Amino acid sequence: MSKRSDYILLADMLDALEAIQEYTDGLDYNSFLSNRMVRDAVVRNIQVLGEAANRISKSFRELHPTIEWMRIIRTRPILVHDYFGLDYEIMWRIITLHLPDLQQNVKQTLGSNPPIDADIEPM
Question: What's the pTM?
């Protein structure tokens, strides 16, 4: 498996955040709770978010403290290992209260760190 650059991993995070926003746009908590496909899609993208954050180098994370890296990273194992005990009310609060700010911080970080040619993976 090739090592993905910090920039590409950050772009993966943004993609997951945008997917979550797209899936939940216009929903209230009860609509979210009653839609299994949306819940599953959101859980999957939160897992991607945590995995990508975990793979970003420590030095890069230290350079960008506005992103709460450890909170993001700690979320993934909870979803993977405690999937049967998910609290969707907490997840909804994360989606509505925390992810918009995270998405903005990730966008700003991406904008301040343009990729170099080595970051571009061949298709």
Answer: 0.84
pLDDT in tens, 22-35: 999 999 999 999 99
Which helix (H) or strand (E) segment holds residue 51: the answer is: helix 36-55
Going by pLDDT thresholds of 50, 70 and 90, the confidence category of residue 1 is very low
73-94 residues labelled b (16+ CB within 10 A) or e (exposed): bebbebbeeeeeeeeeeebbeb
Number of domains in the chain: 1
Q: Is position 120 within any domain? A: no
Which of the residues are catalytic? 76, 81
Full residue range of the structural domain in which residue 91 is found: 6-111
